[in-house]
């Protein structure tokens, strides 16, 4: 029978380090939060090799009292709380007293600190949790702490770290969040001697957002604010133009503490989508200020999760604040008056004035004979003429018949005119979706080579609502979603090109220059091979800036910036490397963006080419997103629907 042992301090500190110090970014977060709690106004972070080799944090805060230097690295040593009751009213970033002890247990740590009342400070060195020395040292007011060789004595943890660039991106991300939460503090980040972040501590959140995300985002944000009895919320939400394919640009702060909250995220996104139906995630920075007794921050060692006493109230407060801000923004853009009562009364009176009446005309189905009417087709104009040969119908029925057929003729002529106009415009522009369809699909020989048709050759009947292609073969009716079908054709063609390293690229007349955040730039550098193999020619164009000179030929004329950012977001969501899953999702997005869309009129030749190409691809029945591309209706099914057979 095993006996119970009391773990020594060294072992318990290493175990605690596994919870508190997950990676270099965790170390940076804990150290900066200590600097913020010391009321520092200037914080500088210097990292080497993604923080694995060295992390150095300098601040100008109050510093540590000389007699407390040794205590600072003891387990559960803290200046933030004195008793258990203080946990329920915490206003500081840290309070557990675990961070410094855990960090020192798995690294070589040197700390220098001086308070204002002393002319000199103290320096201490701890190697793997063991104290080396404490001595007097000359230093500025504040604290400087340097962490070297993180996880040198915990190889199991060290081998699970990502690449240096990825770890640096994590550090940059957490520093960005802390800079947003503290716009009155100046932050600087140096990665291998290169400055990647610099905020100025002006106290304005808009200045911090611009320093972190750039001008394009800061120019497209909308402020919101709302208050209740126990809490208040304020911040900024971005418009549809800066929405992204991931939630990386979403930040939530509760009492200036960066957290992750599904509740608040859902409230903001629901309010956003109630106005702007965009299949992307909105940019937002949310600050919730609430009395400490109404939340519990002691849920997780990293303090990244919070429990609210009133979830429903927080959701409603957040939703209403964002909803009102978006509504007012849209009103401003369309010059809509803000007086709701007058506007609603006017609308109500307008609706009352409108009377809608339904008239049922008499129709004698028994006297209608299909042979009494002759329909003649006059070529592509589809002008139909109905000749009445039977005069036995009453005048009312004759008028009804003439009215219905004239209306049908009018609708058909209008549709034909619209199609002809659309085709004329498309033929003049040369960059339309139809021309892309012809160029991208070609003659179909490339796809049909050495492949077997998955369904029989189809005879085109026509196009329904410029979205669905109607075709027939034998006794079957086929309905094809033109967008889904073209998307799958492009997907398989592009996938094959990548697999065989035969992606054709087109040179852009004007290169697309994109300024990235430091985090996005690091992700691009780490995954530049994926973009290269996908047909992109991208060059570095200055600090955190790239120049896209070539794009895959199959794309036609894409929105290059959004396409690049979508692929980058996909890489963030899926992880880096040469995995097929990343390429699959990226190619699916490329194919979706360049395929013909619903409501695009196609000629008979284009519809025939599309269906022929669809026959010979590997899996023609579903698009890359899983939607069906083609449906078959047998003659037997149709006759049952029309009650011709039982």
TrEMBL record:
Q: Where is the MutL C-terminal dimerisation domain?
A: 460-602
SMART domains per record:
DNA_mis_repair (SM01340), MutL_C (SM00853)
Q: Which PROSITE patterns match?
A: DNA_MISMATCH_REPAIR_1
Q: Which GO terms describe its molecular function?
A: ATP binding; ATP hydrolysis activity; ATP-dependent DNA damage sensor activity; endonuclease activity; mismatched DNA binding
| Single biological process term from Gene Ontology | mismatch repair
For the keyword Nucleus, the answer is no
Q: Which UniProt keywords apply?
A: DNA damage, DNA repair, Endonuclease, Hydrolase, Nuclease
Q: Which domain of life is it from?
A: Bacteria
According to its record, what are the GO cellular component terms? mismatch repair complex
- Residue ranges annotated for the DNA mismatch repair protein S5 domain, each copy included: 209-327
Q: Name one Pfam family in it.
A: MutL_C
Family recorded in the similarity comment: Belongs to the DNA mismatch repair MutL/HexB family.
Give a short account of what the protein does. This protein is involved in the repair of mismatches in DNA. It is required for dam-dependent methyl-directed DNA mismatch repair. May act as a 'molecular matchmaker', a protein that promotes the formation of a stable complex between two or more DNA-binding proteins in an ATP-dependent manner without itself being part of a final effector complex.
The protein's name is DNA mismatch repair protein MutL
Q: Give the gene that encodes this protein.
A: mutL
């Amino acid at each position: 029978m095993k006996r119970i042992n009391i773990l020594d301090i060294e072992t318990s500190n290493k175990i605690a380090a596994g919870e508190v110090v997950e990676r270099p970014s965790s170390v940076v977060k804990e150290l900066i939060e200590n600097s913020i709690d010391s009321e520092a106004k200037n914080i500088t972070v210097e990292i080497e090799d993604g923080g694995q080799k060295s992390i150095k944090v300098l601040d100008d805060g109050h510093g540590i009292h000389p007699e407390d230097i040794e205590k600072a690295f003891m387990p559960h040593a803290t200046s933030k709380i004195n008793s258990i009751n203080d946990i329920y009213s915490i206003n500081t970033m840290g309070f557990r007293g675990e961070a410094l002890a855990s960090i020192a247990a798995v690294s070589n740590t040197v700390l220098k600190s001086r308070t204002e009342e002393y002319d000199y400070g103290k320096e201490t060195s701890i190697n793997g949790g063991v104290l080396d020395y404490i001595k007097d040292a000359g230093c500025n007011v504040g604290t400087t702490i340097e962490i070297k060789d993180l996880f040198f004595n915990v190889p199991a943890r060290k081998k699970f770290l990502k690449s240096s660039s990825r770890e640096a991106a994590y550090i940059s991300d957490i520093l960005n969040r802390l800079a947003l939460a503290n716009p009155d503090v100046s932050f600087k980040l140096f990665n291998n001697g290169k400055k990647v972040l610099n905020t100025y501590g002006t106290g304005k959140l808009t200045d911090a957002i611009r320093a972190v995300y750039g001008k394009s985002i800061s120019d497209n944000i909308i402020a919101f604010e709302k208050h209740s009895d126990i809490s208040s919320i304020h911040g900024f939400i971005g418009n549809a133009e800066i929405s992204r394919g991931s939630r990386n640009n979403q930040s939530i702060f509760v009492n200036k503490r960066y957290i992750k909250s599904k509740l608040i995220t859902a409230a903001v996104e629901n309010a956003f989508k109630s106005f702007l139906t965009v299949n992307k995630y909105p940019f937002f920075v949310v600050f919730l200020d609430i009395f400490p007794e109404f939340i519990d921050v002691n849920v997780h060692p990293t303090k990244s999760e919070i429990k609210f006493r009133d979830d429903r109230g927080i959701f409603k407060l957040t939703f209403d604040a964002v909803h009102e801000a978006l509504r007012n923004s849209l009103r401003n853009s369309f010059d809509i008056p803000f007086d709701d009562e007058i506007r609603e009364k006017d609308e109500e009176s307008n609706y009352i004035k409108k009377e809608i009446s339904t008239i049922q005309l008499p129709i004698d189905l028994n006297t209608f004979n299909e042979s009494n009417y002759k329909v003649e087709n006059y070529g592509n104009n589809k002008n139909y003429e109905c000749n009445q040969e039977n005069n036995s119908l009453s005048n009312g029925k004759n008028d009804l018949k003439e009215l219905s057929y004239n209306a049908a003729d009018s609708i058909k002529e209008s549709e034909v005119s619209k199609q002809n106009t659309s085709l004329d415009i498309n033929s003049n522009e040369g960059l339309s979706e139809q021309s892309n369809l012809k160029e991208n699909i070609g003659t179909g020989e490339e796809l049909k080579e050495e492949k077997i048709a998955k369904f029989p050759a189809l005879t085109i009947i026509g196009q329904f609502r410029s979205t669905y292609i109607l075709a027939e073969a034998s006794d079957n009716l086929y309905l094809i979603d033109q967008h889904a079908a073209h998307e799958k054709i492009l997907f398989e063609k592009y996938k094959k090109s990548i697999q065989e390293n035969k992606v054709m690229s087109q040179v852009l007349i004007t290169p697309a220059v994109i300024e990235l955040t430091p985090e996005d730039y690091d992700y691009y550098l780490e995954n530049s091979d994926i973009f290269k193999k996908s047909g992109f020619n991208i060059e570095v164009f200055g600090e955190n800036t790239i120049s896209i000179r070539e794009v895959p030929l199959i794309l036609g004329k894409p929105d290059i910036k959004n396409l690049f950012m979508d692929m980058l977001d996909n890489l963030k969501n899926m992880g880096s490397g040469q995995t097929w899953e990343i390429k699959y999702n990226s190619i699916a997005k490329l194919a979706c963006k360049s395929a013909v869309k619903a409501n695009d009129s196609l000629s008979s030749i284009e519809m025939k080419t599309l269906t022929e190409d669809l026959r010979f691809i590997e899996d023609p029945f579903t698009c890359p997103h899983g939607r069906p591309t083609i449906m078959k209706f047998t003659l037997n099914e149709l006759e049952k629907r029309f009650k011709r057979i039982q």
